[in-house]
C-alpha cells in the first residue's frame, strides 16, 4: 500500500474501533434495533451532506438497485447483529471478533468467487482465528450462553462483510465503477429500508421515551452515524478502489487494537496480556494475507475501476 492508503487504513480502523464503544453506550438505552436503524439513517444523512458539499453529484449510473442490495449485506444485517452483540459483549470483544472479516473474505473468495487459496492465506486464516480464540477464551468475560450468542452474532456480521467486498467488485466495480460516496450513500439507504420494518415493530412493541434519553447517548449515536458510518464508508470504498477488496478488508485486523483501547480508556474495560498475545497473532495473520493478493484483486487495483471521490 502507498502512504495515503495506509493513512486511510489506520484512520478507518480508529473510527470503526470506536463504533463498538458507541454501541455499548447506545444499545443498553435505545435497544439494538433503534441503534442500528438510527446509525444507518444518520449515515445516509451525513453522506448526502458530504456529496452535496463536495458537489460530486448523485449519479448512480444505473447501479442504484445494486447499491441498495449491497447495503443490506454490508450494513443492515451486520449493524443489527453487532448491536445485538453489544448487549452482552464488551466493546473490545466485538472489535476482536470483527477481525475475522478478512478471514471470512479469504474463505468466501475461495469457495464462491474463484480466489486462489494459497498456503500463505491458509496459514493466515488459521493464525488469525487462533488469535481471536485466545482473546475470547482468556479474556475477563465468562463464557456462557448469552456470550456465545453474542459471538455468533459477530461472526455472522463478519461473514456479511467478507461477502460484501466481493459483491462490491461484481455489482459495482466490474460494471464500470461508481463514485465511492455514492456507493456508500446507496448502501445506507438500502440498509435503512431493510431495517425500517424492524424499527416499526420494535417501537410498537417496546415504545421508547425518546425525550428521556441522556445526552451522552445522542452524542454516541451522532458519532456512530456521522463519523463511523458516513465518513467511514467513504474511506472504506475508497480503499477498495485503491487496493482491492481483500486488502481493504484487512482494516479489521487493526480494529481490535482501537476497540480495546477505546473500551479501556473510556468504559474501564479490562485489557489483559491475552489481548496482547492474541493481537500479536492477528498482526501476523494480517502480514501473511497482505503478502498474497489474488490476480483479480491486482487487476482491480491497477485499472482503478471505481472513480475517485
Automatic annotation (TrEMBL):
EamA domain mapped to chain residues: 9-136, 148-290
Protein name, as recorded: EamA family transporter
Principal location listed in the UniProt entry: membrane
Transmembrane segments: 41-58, 65-85, 91-113, 122-140, 146-167, 179-201, 213-236, 248-267, 273-290
Membrane topology: Multi-pass membrane protein
Compartmental location: Membrane
Membrane keyword on record: yes
GO-annotated cellular components: membrane
InterPro entries in alphabetical order: AA-Vitamin_Transporters, EamA_dom, EmrE-like
Amino acid at each position: 500500500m502507498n502512504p495515503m492508503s495506509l493513512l486511510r487504513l489506520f484512520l478507518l480502523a480508529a473510527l470503526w474501533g470506536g463504533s463498538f464503544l458507541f454501541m455499548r453506550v447506545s444499545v443498553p438505552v435505545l435497544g439494538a434495533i433503534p441503534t442500528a436503524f438510527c446509525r444507518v439513517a444518520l449515515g445516509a444523512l451525513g453522506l448526502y451532506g458530504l456529496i452535496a458539499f463536495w458537489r460530486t453529484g448523485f449519479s448512480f449510473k444505473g447501479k442504484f438497485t445494486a447499491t441498495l442490495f449491497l447495503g443490506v449485506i454490508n450494513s443492515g444485517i451486520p449493524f443489527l447483529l453487532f448491536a445485538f452483540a453489544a448487549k452482552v459483549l464488551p466493546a473490545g470483544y466485538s472489535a476482536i471478533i470483527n477481525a475475522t472479516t478478512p478471514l471470512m473474505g479469504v474463505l468466501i473468495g475461495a469457495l464462491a468467487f474463484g480466489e486462489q487459496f494459497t498456503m500463505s492465506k491458509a496459514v493466515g486464516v488459521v493464525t488469525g482465528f487462533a488469535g481471536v480464540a485466545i482473546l475470547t477464551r482468556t479474556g475477563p468475560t465468562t463464557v456462557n450462553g448469552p456470550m456465545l450468542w453474542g459471538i455468533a452474532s459477530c461472526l455472522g456480521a463478519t461473514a456479511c462483510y467478507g461477502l460484501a467486498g466481493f459483491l462490491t467488485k461484481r455489482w459495482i466495480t466490474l460494471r464500470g465503477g461508481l463514485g465511492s460516496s455514492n456507493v456508500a450513500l446507496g448502501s445506507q439507504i438500502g440498509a435503512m429500508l431493510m431495517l425500517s420494518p424492524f424499527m416499526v415493530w420494535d417501537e410498537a412493541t417496546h415504545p421508547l421515551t425518546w425525550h428521556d434519553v441522556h445526552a451522552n447517548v445522542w452524542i454516541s449515536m451522532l458519532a456512530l452515524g456521522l463519523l463511523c458510518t458516513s465518513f467511514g464508508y467513504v474511506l472504506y470504498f475508497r480503499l477498495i478502489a485503491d487496493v482491492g477488496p481483500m486488502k481493504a478488508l484487512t482494516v479489521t485486523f487493526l480494529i481490535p487494537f482501537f476497540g480495546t483501547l477505546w473500551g479501556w480508556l473510556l468504559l474501564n474495560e479490562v485489557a489483559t496480556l491475552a489481548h496482547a498475545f492474541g493481537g500479536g497473532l492477528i498482526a501476523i495473520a494480517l502480514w501473511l494475507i497482505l503478502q498474497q493478493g489474488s490476480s483479480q484483486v491486482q487487476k482491480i487495483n491497477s485499472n482503478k475501476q471505481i472513480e475517485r471521490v
